[in-house]
Amino acid sequence: MPDTLMRNILTTLAIAFCFFSCGGKLPDEIRQAMDDLPEALDYNIHVKPILSDKCFACHGPDENTRHAGLRLDDAEAAFASLPESPGKVAIKPKRPFKSEMVWRILSDDPDFRMPTPESHLSLTDREKAILIRWIEEGAVYKKHWSFIPLATVPVPFPKNKTWGSNEIDRFVLSEMEIRGFHPSPEADKETLLRRISLDITGLPPTEEEMDAFLADNSPEAYEKQVDRLLASPHYGEKMALHWLDVARYADTHGYTVDRYRDMSLYRDWVIEAFNSNKPFDVFVTEQLAGDLLPNPSKEQLLATAFNRIHPQNMEGGIVDEEFRVEYVADRTNTLGKAFMALTLECARCHDHKYDPVSQKEYFELSSFFNQVDEAGQISWNDAMPVPTMLWTDDDKESLLRMLESDVEREQTKLNHVRREAEVPFATWLSQGEYQRLQAQEIPRGLKAHLDFDALPLTNTLNRGEKAFMESIELKNQTPALVSGRRSNAVKLNGDAWIRMEKSGVFSKSEPFSVSIWVNIPKERENGAIFHTGTGAVLYNRRGYHLYLKENRLELVLAHTAPYNAIIKETLDEVPKDQWINLAMTYDGSSSASGLHVFQNGKQLETKVAKDNLYKDILFGNSGQPGIQVGAVWRGRGLKNALADDLMVFDRKLTTLEVIQLADQQRFKELLSKDPTQLSKNEKEVLLDYFVHNHFPPFGQQVERLTEARRRQAAEVEPIQEVMVMQDMEPRRPTYLLVRGEYHAHGEEVFPGTPRSVLEMPDSLPKNRLGLAKWLLDKKHPLTSRVAVNRFWLYLFGRGLVATPGDFGNQGEMPSHPELLDWLSLDFMNSGWDVKALHKKILLSATYRQRSFASEELRERDPENIYLARGPSGRLPGEMIRDNALMASGLLNKKIGGPSVKPYQPEGLWRVNGGTYVEAKGDDLYRRSLYTFWKRSVPHPTTHIFDAPDRSESVAVRQETNTPLQALVLLNDPTFIEAARVLGAEMSTLPETHLAIQKAFRKVTGRSATDKELAILSELRESEYRKFQQAPEKAKGWVETGYYALSNTVDIPTLASHAVVASAIMNSDAAITKR
C-alpha cells in the first residue's frame, strides 16, 4: 500500500477517533466560532464567498483545472460519490462527519488538508465553522444572487416613522436599525446645492444660484434645484464623463504608435443621449445594434461606434488576424463589463474558474462581434479604420444628392449616345472598316510603357521618366534582365519592386487600364503582380492592385480595405510556367461592375468580394507612388517570376484592344471575318470598340461623365468618417480558440449566450440586435441591476455592490440587496427612465444626509456601507480642474466638438514620436471632458488624479492619494492661471476679507469660517509684503497663462490674491464633495 494512502487513512481514523471519543465534539476554536454565527446561514451571503475564494480554483466550473474530479460549485456534483474515493462524498447534507470536506478542512496533515499548502490559501476558524454549520443545516445551494431574475420586493416598514421621504429611505433605514445605526441630519443648503450641482452637472453652483436657493424657503426649493440641474445641458457632460470610461473612449488608436483619430462625434452622441433622457434600453440597443434597426438614422449608426472605439494597432509587421481577433475579444469583454458586470475575459482561454461561463459560451458570445469587415492592422496613413460612415449635415447631404443626380444624368446621356452610335456603326461594320485595323498598332491612350529591354529602365514614351528597382532595405538596385518573350524581360526576386516615378496614378473617378506579360513559376501561389500602394497591409491596400492569391487573381481598388474598396477574385487558377498577358480595365465608376481582368485577351469570370468604394484610391500627398511591378513594401512578391511589356493607359480599353495587345492571331482572325460571319458577341465587341474610337460624341460624353464623377468625389473626400458597426455577408465562421490563441481553431461555434444567465430565446435573431433584446429581456437578471448600481455609484461614490465590474462569484455581495432589486425593477418598469431614477435617489433623505461622521460611526462603518451619513469623496481630476476654471470665470462652456489640448508639460509625447500642439484662445479653457485623450500618454492632470488610459473598459476608477496630486494643484499652469484670474477679481473689492470670502465661496460653494478667514487673511498679508519687497517673485503668478492681464492692476496685490486663491483651490473643501 502506498505511503501517502496509508497516511491519509491513518489521519482520517485519528480525526474520527477524536470526534467520536469526544462525543462528536468539534475542536474548541471551531465551536467558539460557531457560537458567533448568525442564526441561519445563507448560501450566497455566507458560504459561496468562501467556496469561491478558497475552493473554486481547483474544484469549480473550469473542467481543465479541476482536481480529483470534484466540483463544489454545483450541488449535484458536490453530493455525488467521489470519483477517486468510491463510497465517499464531499458533502453529505445534515451529516458533516460523513462529508469528506469536513475531514479535509479540519486536518493538520499537509497531504490531506484542504486547501492544500501549495495553493497558499487557508481557512479561518470562522470560515470552517460556516462550512460545517451549513452542511449541518442541509447544505442548501442557491443560484448566484445576481443570476436570480428580478421579482417584486415588498417595501419594508422601519420602526422609525419620522425619517425618510421615499421608498429608498425605508430600505436604508431598515438596514440601519438592524445594525444599530441612526441616520444623520440633513446637510445644510449650501452643502446640498454644491453636492447636487457636482453630481448632476459636474460643475459647482454659481453665486447667483446659491443666493437664489438660500432665499427660497418653499418646501419645493430643493426639488426645484434638482429639476433645474437635470434639465441642464451640462448633465449630459457629467454622465458622459463616467460612461466614456466604460466605453473606453479615447482620441488615439492605442498601442505603440498611438496616433490620432477623431471619434468625438460619438462623445457628442453620448452627451445628447443623456441630455435627451434617452431610455436606457434604447441607449443600450443603439450602441450594440443601431445598424441593425429598421431604416437606421445616422445617429443610430453613429451609436454603434461604442463597439469600435477600442485600441487598434497600426504597427508594421504584426499579424493581421491576431489583432482582428483581439478586437473581437475586446468587444466581448466590454459587453460583459458594461452591461452584465461579468469578467467574461476569464473564460477566453479556459472555462471560467469562478463563474458558470464556459469557454465555448465565451466564443459563442464573441460570434456576435466577429462579423465586422475590418483589418487587424489599420492603415499607417491615419485613414479611419473601417467600417466607417460619412458624417454629413443636411446641407452636405443635399449637395451630395444633387451631385449623384448629375452623375446619373451624365450616365444616362452616355447610354443614349451609345444607342445613337448603332446606326453609324452598322454602316462602319457593313463597309468592313474594322478590317483595316492593324494588329501591330498600340491602342490610343498609352501613357507609359516599360519594355524591360535594356538598362536603365525608362518609359519608352518619355525617356525622361525612369523606373527604379527598390526594396525595404535597398534603393536603386540593378534589375536582372533575362531573355523574355521577344527581347529581354525582368526577373523578379520576390522582395523588390520596380517603380515608375509618376505614371499610373489615377483617381477612382478616372478610367484606366494596365496590361502586362508575366511568367509565373509553378511553385508561386501568392504575390503582387502590379500595384500603386506603398505597403499593402500597412496602408490597408490604398491604391489599385493585381495580386496572385491562392493561384487565382485578385483585383483591388481601395481607399481602406477591406471595407472601403472594390475587391474581385477570379474563379479559375492562373496558368504557370508560361507567358500570359494580364490586363486590368476600369471605367471610373467606383463600382465592381466597371472593373475587369483579362487573361490572354479573354475576360475572366470573377466573384465580387466587396463593392463599396466611396473614397479615393490616391494618397492625397506628395508620397503618391507611380505604378510598381513586383513585391509590395512589407508584402509578398512573386520570386523568380518574369515580367515584360508593362503598359498603362488613361482610358478603359475595350475587349478588342485587349485582344490586340494579348493575342494578335485571334485579333487577325476576328478582323478577317466577313460582317455576315460575325457572331452577336463579336459584333458587340466591335461596337464597343467603335463607340470608343470612331464616334466622337461618345468620347466627349465620357469626359463629361468623368468630370461629374470628379466633382462628386471632390465633395466626398474631405467628409469626416466615423467608425461604425456593419455585419459581413456571408457571415464569418467563429471557432473556439484553443487557449484563446487566434490561430488555434477548435470546434466551430454559433451565436449564443451564457445559459447560467439566461437562455437566448429561439425567437430572437442570432445577431447583435437579438443580443441587445436578450440583454433587455425583463427576465435578464443583470442588465438593470448593473445599470442601477452604476448610477448609484456615481452619486454615492460606492455602489450598492462594491464591485461594479464584477457581479460574479468573486464580486462583493450587495450591501442592500432588496433595495437594489426594488430600484432595478422600478427602473425597468419606468421605461428605463434614467433621469427619473436619478431624481428618486437625489430626493431621498438618504442622499440628503450630512456627510460628517462621528468617530464612532467612522470606526463602525468607515466606508459608509450602511448609509448612515451622506456621500462624500474627492472629486475626479476632470471636475477639480473644471471647478477651478469655473470659479475663476475662465471656463468655456461650449458643448461638443473635437478634443482640445490644454496646457501640458513639454516633451511627454516624444515617447512615440508625437508633438503636442497646445490649443489657443478659449479652447485652453474647455471642460476637461474634451481634453485630448492619448492612450499611451494620458493628460497628466487627470491621469495623476486616477483617470485611466482607457485601453479597456473601466467600471470604476481606482482612487489614490499621492504627493503628485498636490503638486498638480500647485504647479499646473491651468491652476496658477485660474488663481491669477480669480485673484484679479478679488483685487477689485475694497476690503481683504470681502475678497477672500468671495473667492472662498466661488471655489468651495460655501462661506469661509472665521478661522479659515483669519488664516487666509494672514496668508494674504504675508504674501503681499513679500511681493512688495521683491516684486520679481510675483513673476510666476502674474505671467503664467495666456489670459490677458490688466495694465492697471497692482502686481503685489494681484500676486498675493492669486496665492490665496491657489491655497483655496488646494484645500480639502475645494477638491472634496461633501
TrEMBL record:
InterPro entries the record matches: ConA-like_dom_sf, Cyt_c-like_dom_sf, Cyt_c_Planctomycete-type, DUF1549, DUF1553
Pfam families: Laminin_G_3, PSCyt1, PSCyt2, PSD1
Domain spans labelled Cytochrome C Planctomycete-type: 55-117
Stretches assigned to the DUF1549 domain: 167-373
Native source species: Lunatimonas lonarensis
Domain DUF1553: 767-1018
MF-aspect GO terms: electron transfer activity; heme binding; hydrolase activity, hydrolyzing O-glycosyl compounds
Protein name, as recorded: Cytochrome c domain-containing protein
GO biological process entries: carbohydrate metabolic process
